[in-house]
Specification:
The protein has four helices and four strands, in the order ααααββββ. The chain has 174 residues and is mostly helical. β2 (155-158) and β3 form a beta hairpin. α1 packs parallel to α2.
Length: 174
């Protein structure tokens, strides 16, 4: 009888140990996968005891981490777009200022009015699409004869706007 009681106690002890050890082992392996970055992993909860409560808490914590990380990623993406927009504005402003500086230099250094007109038109043709300067067709038509030796960037007119093609550089022979 004593041997039978010891065997029953050993079997019950082994069963009790497995009922605690297996869920804890599963919880630990899931925690390792989540630590490795698999935030979609959850624990299937079959119990309502302390181990079940721990599994529920773990699932809630993982869901909150997913939400926080997703929110951070959205905010980073939004801020990246905002920075890219701001960078485009700064680059455009820098080109505008560079164009004004070049125009100022041309205006103050060239005494021949036809040469000056030719250089200014070429420079504006080059910069117009980027800096948002429109060219008046009458002014350009009047200036065309003065553009004699100028190899200007090709210009297209679309719906009253001037757009620089993606090729070419401004070169004028003097």
């Amino acid at each position: 009888v004593a041997v039978l009681a010891v065997l029953i106690a050993a079997g019950a002890s082994l069963s009790f140990t497995r009922s605690i050890a297996q869920p804890l082992s599963h919880l630990a392996s899931t925690a390792e996968r989540i630590t490795a970055g698999d935030l979609e992993r959850t624990i299937h909860v079959e119990r309502e005891d302390e181990i079940g409560k721990l599994a529920h808490a773990f699932n809630a914590m993982t869901a909150q981490l997913r939400s926080l990380i997703g929110g951070l990623e959205r905010r980073v993406a939004e801020r990246t777009l905002a920075l890219q927009d701001a960078n485009r504005v700064v680059q455009r402003r820098a080109l505008q200022l560079e164009t004004v500086a070049q125009l100022s230099q041309e205006i103050t250094s060239i005494l021949n009015i036809e040469e000056l007109l030719r250089r200014v038109v070429v420079l504006i043709r080059w910069a117009a699409p980027v800096v948002g300067v429109g060219l008046n067709h009458k002014i350009v038509a009047h200036a065309e004869p003065a553009l004699g030796g100028c190899d200007a960037v090709p210009v297209q007119r679309v719906a009253g706007r001037t757009n620089r093609s993606s090729t070419g550089t401004v070169r004028c022979s003097t």
